[in-house]
């Protein structure tokens, strides 16, 4: 069992591509460089580990402004004794469209050790995928996102109104997928941030993602200008994995 955000972060979404004109919208993105969010991961009421999501200002290969999306996850000392996890994912994206330029994934889960690198060539409609040193060029549809950038894209674009839906193209593990996200309802949830109104999203998952989920994933986004993911929940083979925000939101902190 792995709780790491390995493939669809906290995986959010995909379908016919980025909606036309999305790159030109005037509304500011809630995702800003300098954001650092820390989550406690629990499984069967056990503290299973921690995950950190960061946004760092960067530049792409042409010297243009870009964002670096970083995700790390580590198992807790108790879990490490029988299933160590030490993963790192890094994604370089356009700061407006969140289109993927390059993504790397260093996976260390139990006895599994893999290194992935994806370089996206959107004009040519291809991605160069390298897994453990073996390279392959594959076709991708227009507007393809990766398994991390899709979450940030949804945060910046999806109206948080019950009934709203969005579909995106996501490339994950050498395959193209169509994911769909739906806003189920607005509800008040309690956590380290206190009580907060959040939009509960249902992410319809056609593949195992973040937590090696065995089905769909739910994400609760704060219903404010920042739209920070407060909680994420995914069913696994036994029980569910829950990620709760403990740092990065004003007033948030570990539960006593």
Question: What is the gist of this entry?
Answer:
The chain is mainly β. The chain contains two helices and 15 strands.
Tag the structure with descriptive keywords.
single chain; globular; outer membrane lipoprotein receptor (LolB), chain A
Describe the structure.
The protein is mainly beta. It has one domain (22-247): outer membrane lipoprotein receptor (LolB), chain A (Clam), CATH 2.50.20. It has helices at residues 77-80, 149-157, and strands at 36-43, 46-59, 65-75, 86-93, 100-109, 112-121, 126-131, 134-139, 145-146, 165-172, 175-191, 194-204, 217-222, 229-235, 240-247. Strands 8-7-6-5-4-3-2-1-15-14-13-12-11-10-9 form a 15-stranded mixed β-sheet. The protein starts with 35 loop residues before the first strand and ends in a 9-residue tail after the last strand. Residues 1-27 and 209-214 have low confidence and may be disordered.
